[in-house]
Design goal:
It is a single chain. By secondary structure, this protein is an alpha/beta fold. 49% of the residues lie in helices and 10% in strands. It has an 8-stranded mixed beta barrel with strand order 1-2-3-4-5-6-7-8, surrounded by 9 helices. Helix 13 packs antiparallel against helix 14, helix 13 crosses helix 20 and helix 17 packs parallel to helix 18.
Length: 473
């Protein structure tokens, strides 16, 4: 699967068509080049005014749209769940029907306000209360949305109006899942009409999880199951064995203490090749290095010979393959290959890393020239290397011999690039106050941040939807 994603990524990069740009300085579809190791001077970045670097404490932060990937059993991204975060949502008691309906409306309005279609290749998941379902209808929902329906009162059976509203949603092409209510009266009254049911694993013991999922499967065998708030790989494995088919949580990007781990020889070899490509302009010399690794040579030729390249003849030599790829494409291929160094979640992790990379590139385009945006793209990829290689980040990037501005941003969140990583970190954690803070430091509004997140998600989804993804490798 990862090889297919790489092939589609490269094919998409070579597409001459230009995407919609968020700003006159926005970059084209061509993904950024990897930063040269010898480029050690500070990047020439425009200075952000001092008054923009500290938010106005008297101004209430705007609501921010944040997201989390929804995965399938194979850890491929199938959808994205959206949330609204902000000062208001943090203070409101969401169990109160009126207030919860207000928050639900805010979420739908945030999605509807985006200038582009919220999701083209991924299902959008949104959580709505029963009262909101009856009030909002289907008009503002993104196409093919999945609704996580929450009960107003789980101690009573659902009203007939709720079942009718669910049917209306389904007739409009949406799915309706019942959220974290397995076994109660409300769930039992709707289960036969629902598309699926989720169980939130947080604060539940493994025994409780096993009992509830088993009960749902036995009593409603046609009901699809999902595990939400999955925080560890063990939780994912447990839920998968209990026949869950959708998963949401932080387990793919969970960082642990990897201080005793070392980079595998294979990944060190990939890092060495990346350095060699940057330092060597003679493709024949690069070919000689690649020929020393039979497995790498095979993977490269298989990559070049995919249908994405539209070749009329089979490429059988490393020299020919390198001439077709060129140094920039080979550099990107090897960089993404590093991200496949992990085991669990490598496909999902690659998509998350590409989404982060594209997001950084897009938000950088508001202020930075294209060459600096390209460096932000690579920065986003490298910031996930510790997750892929299961080693501390400092150990993961050391073999790459990066320039000091990149190291400062990656390891200490310092320097002009560090601000952008801080914004990406805040978005992925869903902390509204920090998103507002770092967006303001970079001269951005939260609406621009939300829109660029959607653009980045769509960009990666478009790559994954290339025809080559559906062919065998």
């Amino acid at each position: 699967m990862f090889g297919k994603l790489l092939s589609a990524f490269s094919a998409w990069l070579r597409d001459d068509a230009q995407p919609a740009k968020p700003h006159p300085q926005a970059t084209s579809r061509q993904a950024p080049q990897t930063i040269a190791a010898e480029d050690a001077e500070q990047p020439d970045l425009p200075e952000i005014p001092v008054e923009s670097q500290s938010p106005d404490s008297t101004k209430q932060p705007e609501p921010v749209l944040v997201h989390r990937e929804v995965l399938d059993e194979a850890l491929s991204v199938r959808g994205v769940e959206f949330f609204v975060r902000g000062e208001l949502s943090n203070k409101i008691a969401t169990h109160r029907t009126t207030m919860r309906r207000f928050l639900d409306g805010m979420l739908i309005d945030q999605l509807a306000a985006l200038s582009r279609s919220p999701m083209r290749q991924r299902q959008a998941w949104v959580q709505l209360s029963e009262a909101s379902l009856l009030r909002l209808g289907t008009g503002k929902l993104p196409a093919r949305a999945c609704v996580l329906l929450v009960a107003n009162d789980a101690t009573l059976p659902a009203h007939a109006d709720t079942r009718e509203a669910m049917a209306t949603m389904q007739d409009a092409g949406h799915e309706v899942w019942l959220d974290d209510c397995i076994g109660n009266r409300w769930f039992t009254s709707l289960a036969e009409a629902a598309n699926g049911a989720t169980l939130r694993l947080a604060l539940r013991t493994p025994l409780e999880i096993n009992d509830l999922l088993t009960q749902a499967r036995e009593e409603h065998p046609g009901l699809r199951l999902g595990a939400w708030d999955v925080s560890t790989a063990d939780d994912y494995e447990m839920a998968r064995k209990l026949h869950c088919t959708r998963f949401s949580g932080s387990f793919v990007t969970r960082r642990e203490d990897w201080s005793g781990n070392v980079i595998s020889p294979q990944m060190l070899h990939v890092a060495s090749l990346i350095n060699h490509i940057r330092e060597e302009t003679n493709l024949r010399a690069v070919a000689q290095v690649l020929k020393q690794d039979m497995a790498m040579s095979y993977r490269l030729l298989r990559y070049v010979n995919t249908a994405a390249y539209g070749l009329t003849q089979h490429i059988s030599s490393i020299e020919q393959g390198l001439m077709i790829l060129g140094q920039e494409q080979l550099d990107r291929w090897l960089t993404l290959l590093l991200l496949s160094g992990g085991g669990l979640g490598d496909t999902a992790l690659t998509e998350v890393a590409l989404t982060r990379a594209r997001f950084l590139e897009l938000v950088g385009a508001y202020r930075l020239p294209p060459e600096q945006c390209e460096k932000l793209f690579v920065l986003g990829l490298f910031s996930m290397l510790d997750l892929a290689l299961k080693v501390p980040l400092e150990a993961a990037v050391k073999p790459l011999r990066l320039a000091e501005p990149m190291n400062a941003a990656l390891l200490r969140r310092e320097g002009p690039f560090g601000r952008y990583l801080l914004l990406a970190d805040a978005c992925e954690r869903g902390i509204a106050s920090e998103i507002c803070k770092y967006a303001l430091m970079l001269g951005l509004t939260t609406s621009k941040v939300s829109a660029r997140q959607i653009d980045a998600i769509n960009w990666v989804a478009d790559i994954s939807a290339e025809p080559v993804l559906r062919s065998k490798q």
